[in-house]
Design goal:
Layout (H helix, E strand, L loop, with lengths): L1 E4 L2 E3 L5 E7 L8 E7 L6 E6 L6 E3 L7 E6 L4 E6 L8 E8 L19 E5 L2
Length: 123
């Protein structure tokens, strides 16, 4: 089970750090990704991190502004979001897969999603 937190209201140009906390001792065996869904749009890939946290993948729209990282000792994956734009407004979700590589997460279809955390970028 994954639980997202850290969302909120922030002004354009501001920053937020999202957290994705997992239960269970095998979290380090999962590749983890962040995804988002804006009102009226389909859910889209944002970023992914490999099991060991060394390798990352980003959507072009967030590259250079967002950073994904993980702390396997804390069973948590983070998404540091800087230079936020109004178009980043969305519900942000994390998800994980035991068998996929981190590069495959951007195209993977998941059956289950958590509640997500709302990020609103507005003046």
């Amino acid at each position: 089970q994954l639980v997202e937190s850290g969302g909120g209201l922030v002004q354009p140009g501001g920053s937020l750090r999202l957290s994705c906390a997992a239960a269970g001792p095998t979290f380090s065996r999962y590749a983890v990704g962040w995804f988002r869904q804006a009102p009226g749009k389909e859910r889209e890939f944002v970023a992914a991190v490999s099991r060991g946290g060394v390798s990352t993948d980003y959507a072009d729209s967030v590259k250079g502004r967002f950073t994904i990282s993980r702390d396997n000792a804390k069973n948590t994956v983070y998404l540091q979001m800087n230079s936020l734009k109004p178009e980043d407004t969305a519900v942000y979700y994390c998800n994980a897969d035991l068998y996929s590589t981190y590069l495959a997460l951007r195209a993977k279809s998941f059956d289950y999603w958590g509640q997500g955390t709302q990020v609103t970028v507005s003046a």
